[in-house]
Amino acid sequence: MRWENLRNDTEDTGQQTLFEAPTPLERGTGRAGLKAPGPGPVESGTGDAPVAVEIRARSIINRVPGEDPMMRWTLNPYRGCAHACVYCFARRTHEYLDLDSGRDFDTRIMVKTNAGELLRAELARPDWAGEPVAMGTNTDPYQRAEGHYRLMPQIIGALRDAANPFSLLTKGRLVLRDLDLIEEASRVTDVGLAVSVGSVDEAVWRSVEPGTPSPRARLDVVRRFAERGLRCSALMAPILPGLTDSVEQIEETVAAIAEAGAARLTPVVLHLRPGAREWYRSWLQREHPHLVPLYRELYGRGSYVPKAYGDAVVAAVHEAAGRYGLNGPARHRPRKERTRPATPSQTPAPGAATQQLSLGF
């Protein structure tokens, strides 16, 4: 495969001229459930056991096309993600490695073992302007492998020492290990923190995000940051049509996020790009076949839901958030009985115990 020459565990990586005498790295005592691959090529669809493939990257800060100055540069110490979220939009990136976007994405984790030293070198370049670096926008830097490889303390330490602004988005409770380091960085530069919690429905979580900490455990991360005086936002994402988009579920999730002390809340409705789309569809057909017609209607024309539906969901979240003092003046009053927000093509489902915002559900 095209990246095999970057592996650490082969006899000749071809990288010693670039990285002489790499600094010994502190490792965790366990393997985080990940095995080391054999010396041969890592091939798609071979075996179910999760493996960590150690590589020495050639670069670590990535330029992202677009005009958003906060998202112009990203950093991903891992490729693939053992969180195994069935909806993850980054799945297709594994196809660039000649691996598949389904099971391989969940179990073939590329570990950029030289991320810390490479970052220090790139931050020291004369042409680096000190722009914000976003982490967690592709795969989670605090996924299970981080417990063993401990790349993030090196990365945060390098950003702190350079007083370079950065942001972190995670579902991982492991970020609390680095709380002191993050607090140190916040004293010398701008640090943005966010935790992703799409819903507090335990049944949905176990099925759709099987490798992640529970939603309540993630909200404890928000709480711990707030106790340290560190502003931490919540990304209420993704909101799943027919599964977590009812007024009642939105209310419960927003209330839990507010109670945890989140500084802001941003809702995002599920989008299904190629790669994630196929994997999610097979999961939906297996776990919730009655929802397939709904998804065909919502996603039949592309990766994003129709504007009317998306606007209705986001409006419901913002309405609840306002009552709990998120994204605006604090009011903190319980919800009143009310009807659901409706989309133009929506009609109430007679006798439904839980009314969804989704079309006809």
Summarize the helices and strands and which ones pair or pack.
Elements: E1 51-55, E2 61-63, E3 73-75, E4 78-79, H1 103-107, E5 108-112, H2 115-123, E6 133-135, H3 146-149, H4 151-161, E7 166-170, H5 179-186, E8 191-196, H6 202-208, H7 215-227, E9 232-239, H8 247-260, E10 265-269, H9 276-287, H10 292-299, H11 307-323
Parallel strand pairs: 1-5, 3-6, 6-7, 7-8, 8-9, 9-10
Antiparallel strand pairs: 2-3, 4-5
Helix pairs in contact: 2-4, 4-5, 7-8, 8-11
Query: Quaternary state, please?
Result: single chain
Cα separation of the termini: 46 Å
**Portion in beta strands:** 5-15%
**SS element count, helices:** 11
Helix content: 25-40%
Number of strands: 10
Major sheet attributes? 7 strands, mixed
Q: H/E series, N to C?
A: EEEEHEHEHHEHEHHEHEHHH
Please characterize this protein's 3D structure.
The chain is an alpha/beta fold and 361 residues long. The protein is built from eleven helices and ten strands. The protein has helices spanning 103-107, 115-123, 146-149, 151-161, 179-186, 202-208, 215-227, 247-260, 276-287, 292-299, 307-323, and strands at residues 51-55, 61-63, 73-75, 78-79, 108-112, 133-135, 166-170, 191-196, 232-239, 265-269. The strands form two sheets. A seven-stranded mixed beta sheet has the order 2-3-6-7-8-9-10. It has a three-stranded mixed beta sheet with strand order 1-5-4. The longest helix has 17 residues, at 307-323.
